[in-house]
Each structure stands twice: as structure tokens, then as C-alpha cells.
Amino acid sequence: MSSAGKVIRTIRNRRSPRIVLLTDGHSTEGDPLTTAAKIKTDGIQLDIIGIGGSPSEVDEKSLRQMASVVDGEIRYWFIRSVGDLVRRFEFLGLRKCS
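Below the sequence we write its predicted C-alpha cells.
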């Protein structure tokens, strides 16, 4: 996530910068809550998709805290299947970036 934040900050003329993070919520490096806060402070929208066999296998509490809130909606979703993942990416790709 921090690498994506660094890259997106270098892009000129960013209209609606957004990172879509696909994760199980278990960090292997650094403090993801701090990294997410920095990314959002920099004006980058953070959409998070939790993946796993069940929501209990994902750190949903942290992922909800990390996700952006746009128009009162927390930008976090738990996905159970490949079909649901494809539909979520289609939705994100077709929806106007906030």
C-alpha cells in the first residue's frame, strides 16, 4: 500500500487519485493504519477489498478504519468469490471516481 501511495503521488494532473487495495488485512510490513491515514491525508481515496474464506479470516476492523469514507459510505467490502470480485472491480471501474 505504501508503494502505491508513493507512485500515485508522482503522477501529474491527478484528477481523482484512488488506490484499490485487495488484501486479507494481515500486514507483513509497517503500520497499515498509519500508512492509510497518510494516503488519505494526501487526498488519495482508499478503496479496500477484503478477501478470504470468511470475514473472520480478515482483519475487518482495521480494514474499515483504513478505508476512505465517501458520502458517508465506508469504502470497504468483503468478497467471497471470484464472481463477486469481478463485479466489484467492474463497479469501481464504471463508477465516477469520488
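The beta strands are 18-23, 45-51, 69-70, 73-74, 76-79.
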